[in-house]
């Protein structure tokens, strides 16, 4: 079966410093002794997701679930390993976080769509379907700051899933 996602040896570590002084020293003198400890939130993950397959990522707070999803969507890069994608992936973790409150819903659809890698022509082609799915009516042409949180999420989800 065709693979949609392959995670190969993915690890993610974050540098932790005792203080800002250590961070500065390491930045100024990178060849000297390291002044940080690495906190590994993901270690050597390997798995595949088949086309059409649904997968759940379950774990306690701080287990690295969101970090893994950010790596898959390209928001964060792994420290080691790589991700292979067959198709497009959109992040739903921070749905609508990039919406500008003073712009209209329609303007935000175009900006969000562009951030997801779509051209204006592609967005225009899908605009009616986005509007229909979001079910916010004439509010699409009002500033997002006037939307309820539910309206914002529906519009953001419509953009993220437009193709």
Radius of gyration: 20 Å
How many H/I helical runs?
5
For the largest beta-sheet, the strand count, sense and barrel status come to: 3 strands, antiparallel
**Average pLDDT, all residues:** 88
By secondary-structure content and strand pairing, the structural class works out as: alpha+beta
Poorly predicted parts: none
Q: What would the principal axes of the Cα set say about the shape?
A: globular
H and E order: EHEHEHHH
Distance between the termini: 22 Å
How does this structure look, described?
The protein is 34% helix and 22% strand. With 163 residues, the chain is of the alpha+beta class. Strands 2-1-3 form a three-stranded antiparallel β-sheet. α3 (105-115) crosses α4 (120-134), α3 (105-115) crosses α5 (149-160) and α4 (120-134) packs across α5 (149-160). The longest helix has 15 residues, at 120-134. The mean pLDDT is 88.
């Amino acid at each position: 079966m065709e693979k949609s996602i392959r995670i190969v040896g993915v690890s993610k570590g974050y540098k932790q410093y005792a203080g800002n002084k250590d961070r500065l020293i390491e930045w100024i003198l990178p060849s000297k002794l390291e002044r940080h400890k690495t906190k590994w939130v993901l270690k050597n993950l390997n798995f595949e997701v088949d086309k059409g397959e649904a997968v759940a990522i379950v774990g306690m707070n701080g287990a690295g679930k969101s970090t893994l999803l950010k790596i898959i969507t390209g928001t964060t890069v792994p420290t080691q390993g790589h991700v292979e994608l067959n198709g497009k992936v959109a992040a739903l973790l921070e749905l609508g976080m990039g919406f500008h409150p003073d712009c209209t819903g329609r303007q935000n659809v175009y900006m969000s769509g562009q951030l997801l890698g779509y051209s204006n022509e592609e967005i225009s082609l899908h605009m009616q379907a986005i509007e229909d799915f979001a079910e916010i009516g004439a509010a699409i042409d009002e500033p997002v700051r006037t939307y309820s949180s539910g309206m914002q999420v529906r519009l953001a989800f419509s953009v993220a899933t437009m193709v």
